[in-house]
Each structure stands twice: as structure tokens, then as C-alpha cells.
Amino acid sequence: MLGRYADNLYWMARYLERSENMARRIDATLHHALTQTNDGAAEWSSVIVSNGNAALFNEKFSGHSMANVINFVLRDQANTNSVMSLLGKARQNARIVRTALTQEVWQSLNESWISYENALKRPINIRDLPAILESIVKGSSLFRGALYGTMLHNDIFNFVRLGTFIERADNTARIIDAKYHRLLPTASALVGGPDQSQWEVMLRSVAAWRSFNWLNKGRLDPVGVAIFLIFDKRMPRSLSFCYKEISSNLHDLEMAYGRQYNAGDIARALAQTIKDGEQNNIHLSNLHDFITSFISTNNQLSLTIAKDFNLN
Questions:
Q1: Do the beta carbons of residue 24 and residue 137 sit within 8 Å?
Q2: Distances (CA, A) of 154 to 108, 157, 170, 249, 250
Q3: For residue range 66-92, what is the model confidence (pLDDT) as tens digits?
Q4: Residue 163 · residue 278 · CB < 8 Å
Q5: Which residues, at least 6 apart from 88, have a Cβ–Cβ distance to it below 8 Å?
Q6: CB contact at 8 A, 44 and 65
Q7: Counting beta carbons within 10 angstroms of the beta carbon of residue 295, is it exposed (0 to 12), middle (13 to 18) or buried (19 or more)?
Q8: Model confidence at 44: pLDDT above 90
Q9: What are the residue ranges spanned by the domains of the chain?
Q10: Is this prediction's pTM over 0.90?
Q11: Which residues contact 261 (CB under 8 A, 6 or more apart)?
Q12: d(C-alpha 248, C-alpha 11), whole Å
């Protein structure tokens, strides 16, 4: 496959995954804000920081109100990481490789874009927000369903999946890093109040609230949350699950192209690091160092994939 086509597929998937992650983060923060006695400004502020455009936001707005944050993160054209911008870039990349995609995959993305463009072209009314966020998440789910159900599981599929899981791993790691102090063993499992609500925000942000409660019968504790988000191989957004998928797709590419790549070596080494961390109870100490190193290596893997496969 030509490197520029692989690049389009890879970034199409990353942008789409990033838009879904942002929608889930806003939904989790909204749920948190509606259950608090204050306006939740601190949590809305953390959404802006995670979006990566805090300087631009501060230039345009004087405070982290719900309305300001929602409109900036979802629809502001000047914000390159707004959901609207991300979906536009995902669609543009998909158009370039249109012939490599099945009709169902292309239609799922294109129809979602048309729907979002209409819904987000005006300032968002808070009453409409839950339906808009649900639509964004559903659109991404339809895309994945069409991808799995209609595409050949060949190198095209592999590059799309690599983009998805590199982005997903980065998102989960950054959410953990932003609140790692609440996952330390010194945080009481029975403190209640703000800490428990923060753990709930973390889990909702990665679509893990229901599954965590199902496994733990509703009991929230910091160590349990850390183990689940980092090491649980059954949870589709855990670091362990993401690297199982990344390693598998890189292995498929190595088999298809008949050679071993540096990216595959890095992915397998990081997957082993996660496994070793679980065995050595890394979540009980040095959590911040572990996650910081993970984010750095995950970024390095993305750069190595670009170099190995001539993505440009």
C-alpha cells in the first residue's frame, strides 16, 4: 500500500476516535456537573486542558462556564481539536481513500458528518446536548460496526485499527495521568464525596462505568479503578487491551509484508511492560512515572509507525 494512503487511513481513525473520546468526556463531565452543588467549573476547566487548546480558550473566554466549554470543544472552528474539526478531518481523509473503503464504511462516516454539521452549526442549547453527544458516539460505533462487518481484514483494516487503538490508549493514559493522585493507595476507598465522584467521571469518560460496577458490584475504590483502566484485558479501553490490539495488527502487517518492523518491537515491548507492571503491582507505587513513560512510548510508537510504513 502507498504510504500516503496508509497515512489517510491511520489518521481518519485517530480523528474519529478522538472525537468520540471528547464526546464521552463532555458527557461524563456534564453528568458530574449536574450532580454537584457548585457549577463544576474545575471539571470543565480540566476538559479544556485535556483538549490541548487552553491558551486559545483563555484568549476567547473569561471563564470556564459550561456553555463556553461546550461550544468551544464541540463546534469552535478555530479549535483544531473541536469535535467539528476532528470529524471534518476524518471525513476528508476518508474521501481521499474512498475506493479503499466499502460503501457501508464510507456512508456511516459521511452521513454522520452531515448530521453533525447541521446540529453543530449553531450555539448549543444545553437541553440538546445529551442527544448531540449520543449521536456522536453512535456514529463512531456505526463506523466500527461497518468496518468489522464489511471490510476485508487486510492491511487497510490494520492501519485503521492501529490509528484507533494508538489514539484510544493515549486518551485513557491521559485521563489516568490527570487524576492519578486519586488512584494512589493512600486515597481512602471509603472517603465518599468528591473523590468517588471523580472516579466516576474517569470511568464514564472511557465507557467503563457500567462494566466496572458489574464486576465490582458497585464498590468504588482507587486501586480497583487503576487496575481496571490499566490492566484489565477484557475492557476495550484499558491500556492492556489497546496494546493487545496494536501488537496484533502490527503482527498482521509484518506477516503481510514479510518483514519485522521497529514499530512491532516497540509495541511488543510496551505490552510486556504493562504485563510486568501488573505482576509487580506497579499501580501501588510510581503510578505517575509509569503512566508518563507509557504516554511517551505510545507517542514514539506512532512516530515509528510513520517512519516504518512511510506515512506522509
A1: yes
A2: 20, 5, 24, 9, 11
A3: 889 999 999 998 999 999 999 999 999
A4: no
A5: 113
A6: yes
A7: middle
A8: no
A9: 1-151, 153-312
A10: yes
A11: 250, 253, 254, 304, 308, 309
A12: 19
